[in-house]
Amino acid sequence: MSVPMEGAKIQIHSYKHDGKIHRIWNETTVLKGTKNLVIGGNDRTMVTESDGRTWITREPAICYFHTDHWFNVISMIRQDGIYYYCNLGSPFVYDNQALKYIDYDLDIKVFPDMTYSLLDEDEYEYHRKQMGYPEVIDHILKRNVERLIHWIHQRKGPFAPDFIDIWYERFLTYRH
Q1: Residue 2 maps to a domain
Q2: What keywords would UniProt list here (predicted)?
Q3: Number of C-beta neighbours around residue 101 at 10 A
Q4: Which of 30, 37, 86, 122 gets the most CB atoms within 10 Å of its CB?
């Protein structure tokens, strides 16, 4: 697997378990790229949904992807604080065209006060049956929900108090 270069602009492709494209983020600036970790930043980037509809993100975001974890974290920087949107999904791969992962429906939304909500459990159950998620995937995802909640409580990884400040500042240097 190749590694995206710092400062490069890449796309992020989210797929479903059946291999169909789910969503594409048109442009994310790589702030750190290793074989195991990609941290990116974007602001007002175009997003294309599977049905072809497009929309533009409203605020700057710092994205965290890791090959050892079945989740990724999008930290949205808003006027009233940082909101985190955590997607339960496969570890990423990068193929010189885009960073790619499988979205497994479950999400955790974290608010600036670090309270959180588990979202889309019904969608997960529906797709689990419809697409035949293997039992092993179900166990991995449930274990990673627990890991993610632990990280939120411990303020670990992208939830660490200075994480967003450091990476957002780096993102701003690439924008100028």
Answers
A1: no
A2: Hydrolase, Magnesium, Metal-binding
A3: 23
A4: 86
pLDDT(175) > 90: no
Beta strand 98-110 with 9-15 is: parallel
Q: What is the pLDDT of residues 81-94, one digit of tens each?
A: 999 999 999 999 99
DSSP state of 58: -
Domain range for 70 is: 9-175
| Average pLDDT, integer, range 8-16 | 98
Nearby residues of 75 by Cβ (< 8 Å), 6 or more positions away? 61, 62, 63, 64, 82, 83, 84, 158, 163, 164
4 in any annotated domain = no
Q: Assess if residue 126 is contained within a domain.
A: yes
- Given the structure tokens 């997607």, which residue do they identify? 87
Question: Active-site residue numbers?
Answer: 23
Task: Identify the CATH number of the domain in which residue 117 sits.
Answer: 2.40.380.10
What is the number of structural domains in the chain?
A: 1
Among the listed residues 50, 54, 57, the one whose alpha carbon sits nearest the alpha carbon of residue 85: 57
CA 37 and chain centroid, separation: 12
Question: Taking CA 154 as the corner, what is the angle to CA 148 and CA 159, rounded to the nearest 5 degrees?
Answer: 65
Neighbours of 146 (CB within 10 A): 9
Report percent pLDDT > 70 for the chain.
99
